[in-house]
């Protein structure tokens, strides 16, 4: 068993699939460092608890997540198509041949290249204009302002890995989190650049992140209210709802969360204005 192998943990009923990303030796045994395939989770396990599986294997929880993801994508795409087959944005575009629209542009900054790749594939499926960059969580506050100035997005995602330190008791102390402070610093830097929650929409956080502090820093959406693991595609579904909601609509937070995999335990936030703009007339040359 080595780095790159796909494994499951026997002690957890083989419910979640992981990739081995590192092997650490201690005095007693080797400890395998694991990264979730679907969940933004980093875990460790001894060799005897692991079983190698084929790349296409899906555990019980993975199967549930995969069904939910496929259902969400189908629901979203159906909501954009009327009976005549015209492309619509959440049924906000009238059935007029000369009307067109543009969803909001997304910049997705992720500390994990694998998760970013999965997110970019789904953005493409959902017909979203998204640019992605891999940036280590601790480096995000140093570069995010310049990146936003260059890309000029409507929506920014700041995510990667996070987690609560073992035996932590104060869930509002940023020192008890692996990376929450960097998400807070990044959001604060962006709000110094643009204080408007309507002009620049921000999603920040990862698994078990300090939800309250990230929102206080100025994010529109954050994780994780109940300090749970979030699905790697949760930020994508949040962005989709905002990007394809009309600019004249303030989207209720419960409507945004309906499309996520983790729901209210994993994601929360504030009412946010949509980023979809209708245009007229449509060019006859496109």
Which SSEs are present, and which pair or pack?
Elements lengths: L5 E4 L7 E9 L4 E7 L5 E5 L3 E3 L7 H20 L20 E3 L3 E5 L2 H13 L4 E5 L5 H12 L3 E5 L20 H14 L7 E4 L6 H7 L3 E2 L11 H10 L6 E2 L1 H6 L9 E2 L2 E2 L3 E3 L7
Parallel strand pairs: 7-8, 7-9, 9-10, 10-11
Antiparallel strand pairs: 1-2, 1-5, 2-3, 3-4, 6-15, 11-13, 12-14
Helix pairs in contact: 3-4, 4-5
Keywords summarizing the entry:
Rossmann fold, 7 helices, 2 domains, six-stranded mixed sheet, alpha/beta, 286 residues, 29% helix, five-stranded antiparallel sheet, single chain
Short précis:
The protein has helices at residues 60-79, 113-125, 140-151, 180-193, 211-217, 234-243, 253-258, and strands spanning 6-9, 17-25, 30-36, 42-46, 50-52, 100-102, 106-110, 130-134, 155-159, 201-204, 221-222, 250-251, 268-269, 272-273, 277-279. It is of the alpha/beta class. The protein folds into 2 domains: 6-52; 61-279, Response regulator (Rossmann fold).
């Amino acid at each position: 068993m080595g780095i790159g192998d796909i494994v499951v943990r026997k002690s957890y009923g083989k419910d979640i699939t992981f990739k081995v990303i590192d092997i650490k030796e201690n005095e007693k045994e080797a400890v395998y460092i694991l990264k979730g395939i679907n969940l933004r989770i980093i875990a460790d396990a001894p060799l005897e608890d692991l079983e190698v599986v084929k790349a296409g294997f899906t555990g019980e929880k993975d199967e549930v997540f995969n069904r939910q993801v496929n259902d969400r994508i189908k629901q979203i795409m159906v909501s954009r198509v009327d009976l005549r087959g015209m492309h619509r944005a959440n049924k906000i575009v009238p059935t007029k041949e000369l009307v067109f629209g543009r969803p909001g542009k997304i910049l997705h900054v992720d500390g994990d290249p694998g998760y970013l790749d999965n997110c970019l594939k789904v953005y493409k499926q959902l017909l979203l204009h998204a640019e992605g960059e891999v940036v280590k969580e601790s480096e995000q506050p140093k570069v995010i302002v310049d990146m936003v100035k260059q890309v000029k997005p409507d929506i920014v995602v700041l995510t990667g890995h996070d987690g609560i330190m073992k035996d932590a008791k104060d869930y509002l102390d940023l020192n008890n989190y692996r990376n929450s402070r960097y998400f807070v610093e990044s959001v604060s830097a962006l709000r110094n650049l643009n204080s408007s929650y309507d002009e620049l929409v921000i999603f920040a956080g990862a698994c078990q992140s300090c939800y309250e502090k990230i929102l206080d820093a100025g994010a529109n959406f954050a994780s994780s209210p109940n300090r749970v693991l979030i699905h790697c595609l949760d930020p994508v579904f949040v962005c989709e709802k905002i990007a394809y909601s009309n600019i004249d609509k303030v989207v209720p937070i419960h409507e945004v969360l309906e499309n996520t995999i983790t729901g209210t335990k994993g994601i929360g936030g504030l009412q946010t204005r949509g980023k979809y703009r209708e245009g007229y007339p449509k060019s006859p040359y496109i």
